[in-house]
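Teaching note: in complex prediction, the entire set of molecules is handled at once rather than each chain in isolation. The prompt given to students was simply: 'Predict the structure of this complex.' The entities are:
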Amino acid sequence: MRRETQNILLVLTGGALLKIAFGDTYLRYVKPSQQPLLIIAGVVILALAAVAIVRDIKARQPKTSQPRARAAGHDHARSAWLLTLPVLAIFVVAPPALGADSVDRDSSRATAGATDSAFPPLPRGAVVDLSVTEFVTRAGWDTANSLDDRTVELTGFVVRDGESLRLARMVVTCCAADAAPLSVRLHDAPATGLRSDDWITVTGQLVPGTATEASDYQPVLRVDSLREVSAPRNPYE
Amino acid sequence: MTIVSKNSAESAADERPRRRITSLEVLCVLVLLAVLGQDWLQRILDAPAVRTGATIFVAVCVQALPFLVLGVLISGAIAAFVPARVLRKVLPRNEALAVPTAGAAGIALAGCECASVPVARRLIGQGVLPSVAFTFMLAAPAVNPVVLVATAVAFPGEPGMVLARFLGSMGTAVFMGWLWAKLGKAEWIAERVLRRMPEHPGNRRWVTFAETARHDLVEAGGYLVLGGLVSAVLTVAVPQDWLATLGGQVVLGVLVMAVLAVVLSLCSEADAFVAASLAPLPLLPKLVFMVVGPAVDLKLFALQTGTFGKAFALRFAPATFVVAIACALGAGLLVLGGVR
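The expected output is the structure of the full assembly:
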């Protein structure tokens, strides 16, 4: 691959990183805390390409009589063509956040490092807004049973399998490659017209004793109300 | 118009301005086609499995690129600002002693595994013994404080896991260094790696820095993408349900977790959480997963092939795989006192 082409590919790669970092798109792929890393990396890649381009243009001017110095001899980097793949994927396709398909694919995981213990009491109020992680962890491992007789509000996407309905959320540690699903079974839910990957907010109560090893630690929620919402900024927990 | 081989195309283009198709035009056409065919591409990529795979592919690339950039910057800095004689002075003269020293130095570079490959390459270019550089390459991503803290967080109530991981990874790195000192041959490493960078005074150093970093980035970037691609395809194509059936079988569990670590190509800062969440397995297979992952996985194999050559990677990666499993088992039995 020619040096000029490599430089343009680097410009595209750096540009792709900056494009996703300056929107919300990067949240589909990595944790929010990685945004500064993406920006720095994008800027550095652009700068490296810019230096090379400027040097090439200078070297081509007739005044400089010495032959053009190629820092590392000939570049036999055919592999660099592969860089077009993520660039095109980001600019042209922009793959969506992981959803119901990943939940179906991966049913063998439980919450990382959860152990039986007494959790602190939930905040007061008629309805408690909880993350799915918090709800599932408390349902499975809280010896103080802090969820009993409490109405909670959960937000997640729908996983639909015939008549059975689940609310799920992917938990991401570093990037989407390590995402693990958490899901809650919904009982008495008005399921009309809901499809997998629709985002919903539900309120309801935990059916005690449903989050056990036999159920893969998927608690059951008796649903009071259910409404469709738009996808949150960060699709992962 | 004909497509001629790259070298003659370049020299010919410099001398006489005749019309030839170069990589530049190919790239332009490629981008143009992708933009024009956007709707069509999005339609064929709409199957759920393909969508999941594409997201994982982009995630691996996006997540790893900043660390690769960090690696090539350090690599450029070594080439430009650290003369070979300084490195010779810092490291012990005795190879057997220099290897563990390099392992200990790995504690300081808090980065993912992608960063350490270009750094190791440049260390060799500056005259550091390959065995020493490889030990550093294997140790840096696995024993740095960020990774150890992540392990402690992922395994609450099991402080032994942190120590076992440290010992297993350090053991792998040091043993591979000694193994290379004993059996390794310089001709397995691609010739370009061994070529010394010319030393430039003053101003030229910044040019060396920028050019080296750029060159390493282009060379390694493509292989990183290749590793991410294979890993994403396998993640989607291989059903993960069979993991649940492994429960009690320790030997099979260890082997499967070792292979899984290679296939998933996770960042070393995240693998502890994934290991912890693979519920039904005992601690020992999870430890194997965490020791093997940062030492050898598809992404690293691709990077090493691109950086050090195929002859090197085909020997080094399988050896690392075996040594890492052995060291993990040893450290696990020593610290955890059994399978658990």
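Point out the following to students. Chain B has one domain: 52-335. Chain B touches chain A through 83 residues (CB under 8 Å).
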